[in-house]
């Protein structure tokens, strides 16, 4: 078996450490092209029995697999492949505190090459909705979420910063990571890899409203966060979504007047997730369609 450098295949949701490459993100990806190889072995730091991994060849059907004996083995043929971290038992804060670490890639023969593109990344930021959680009952589907669908429609690589339970105020149930910390770190004290992104789409506010934040609370949190977004993505077009439940629409409209950098999209008339917090698979598809129309 031949040891390959993993770094060229990793999406921006992975960070580099002395132990390997770590992620805390549902939807974190490894993308590559296979030439002449028949089996790939991804070696992990632990067995991660509670993690669901999916893979797809040549944009085909997603297939579930598992990590056994600290390794993920996939039989391959020539073509383009994508592997995603789909879900874990528990919630995303548990994943933040216990990151997944991939150590190495072994190839039996032939070669594995990175997917080359000159396109700039489209970056999506938000909570569990952005992460693609609970789209099918209790199941997560980052591969079918609206960030993934929009990136595919635009033919752009995807960068995702989405953590369940988070928000812009202390009312949000999960404060690890905070929204600001997630912009800069991919795991505790591990820097997030920076990529060139000229389009950033942000969806926060649902958890803040659902857990009791006042307009004053959200106004303060949003004001601080907008400054952090400008610092992090100073050359990008930044699109803010009014949450699907219409949360804090007036606050968004008020606060963006302080800047000339933000575009606000009111999603409340779309009637997404009227009966539940998390959009369904069909609703994610509709969000993608409607938002693509609003971006043109």
TrEMBL record:
Limits of the SGNH hydrolase-type esterase domain: 124-245
Please give the superkingdom of this protein's source.
Bacteria
* Name of this chain's protein: Lysophospholipase
Q: What is the lineage of its organism?
A: Bacteria, Bacillati, Bacillota, Bacilli, Lactobacillales
Q: Name one Pfam family in it.
A: Lipase_GDSL_2
An example of a GO molecular function for this protein is: carboxylic ester hydrolase activity
